[in-house]
Amino acid sequence: MEKVTFLNPEFFWLFLILPGLIFWLIRKRKVQSATLKMSSLEGFKTSKSVLAKLKPVLVIFRLLALCSIIVAMARPRTVDVSSKTKTTKGIDIVMAIDVSGSMLAKDLKPNRMEALKSVAKTFVEGRPNDRIGLVVYASEAYTKTPVTSDKAVVLDALRSVKYDNVLQDGTGIGMGLTTAVNRLKDSKAKSKIIILLTDGVNNAGFIEPETASDIATEYGIKVYTIGIGTNGMAEFPYAIAPNGSFLFKMMQVEIDVNLLQSIAKKTGGKYFRATSNQKLEAIYKEINKLETTEIEELKFYDYDEKFRPFALLALALLLLEVGLRNTIFRSFI
Q1: C-alpha–C-alpha distance, residues 305 and 208, integer Å
Q2: How does DSSP assign 13-72, residue by residue?
Q3: Beta bridge partners of 78
Q4: pLDDT tens track for 119-146
Q5: Where are the beta strands (DSSP E) in the chain?
Q6: Tens-place pLDDT, residues 247-296
Q7: What is the full DSSP assignment across 248-269?
Q8: pTM of the full structure
Q9: Beta-carbon count within 10 A of 98 CB
Q10: Angle CA(30)–CA(33)–CA(38) in degrees, nearest 5?
């Protein structure tokens, strides 16, 4: 009877009549019992009949039958609820990530790139109904993962993002934005979003960021820009030691805030500045709230009626009582 519900629980109030019914049956039995007054019973051998002792069982059968009928009338049943979600207004999102050497700066812990990957992972996992793609850029750009609903593919690509000299070092914001636009321009989604993250100024590439933002606007793509890096000085990698590790020194943090604000404003997005791990996390949470997906949820209820066993039990008890009353206990009635 686990997870059983009752369609008509009001019938349980009928149990309140049971005490009165029991009292009435006992009183009726005493009235119907034949009595004979005698001055003495010494001439009779007294013996107690087993059947006489068992006769009250008939009343118990009738009461149990009544209880079963009440439970059956309350309609016990179990329900299996299954749901199916349908995305009515899906969102296609491309994250354009700066992978230049400056992303190894240690003003965010353990560095900017690892901090971003951790926060972006949570963001991807929190968008189960949207398609997400990944673009990486330095002086050039390429698509790491096309827009897909397979979050496992996106998360695997995100884990593999690193500074590895595959791309020539530099910061080509226009290149990264154009590549991201190219991933979304043919999308049929109701909403198309680019999250562009950089930690520097545009100093590479052959496409100007302003041109890229104009193209994004033409295709109805909204761009959220994030400048990552603390204010003032930060530990930047400036050389590679003989053992292959990076050497760091304190350098001035430079982010083209005006450019990022211009891109966001032109495309209908918003500019953010992430100066710490906590602020970066808060930025992605805010974007997550700003870009919500409309979901239609359909629920299917499968009811399994449980009243039949109680009804059959009541019938069996009543038939048993009638049978015993008209056979074994017939002489006592």
Answers
A1: 68
A2: GGGGGHHHHHHHHHHHHHHHS-----S--TTS-----HHHHHTHHHHHHHHHHHHHHHHH
A3: 4, 304
A4: 999 999 999 889 999 999 999 999 999 9
A5: 4-6, 76-89, 91-98, 131-137, 141-148, 191-198, 221-228, 233-240, 246-252, 271-274, 294-305
A6: 999 999 999 999 999 999 999 999 999 999 999 999 999 999 888 776 55
A7: EEEEE----HHHHHHHHHHHT-
A8: 0.64
A9: 24
A10: 110
Amino acid at 91: I
Structure tokens at 170: 């530099």
**Residue listed under structure tokens 């992978």:** 99
Residue-wise DSSP of 282-297 = HHHHHHHHHSPPEEEE
Dihedral of CA atoms 111, 114, 119, 123 in degrees, nearest 10, equals 150
Q: Phi/psi zone of residue 260: left (φ > 0), alpha (ψ -120 to 50 degrees), beta?
A: alpha
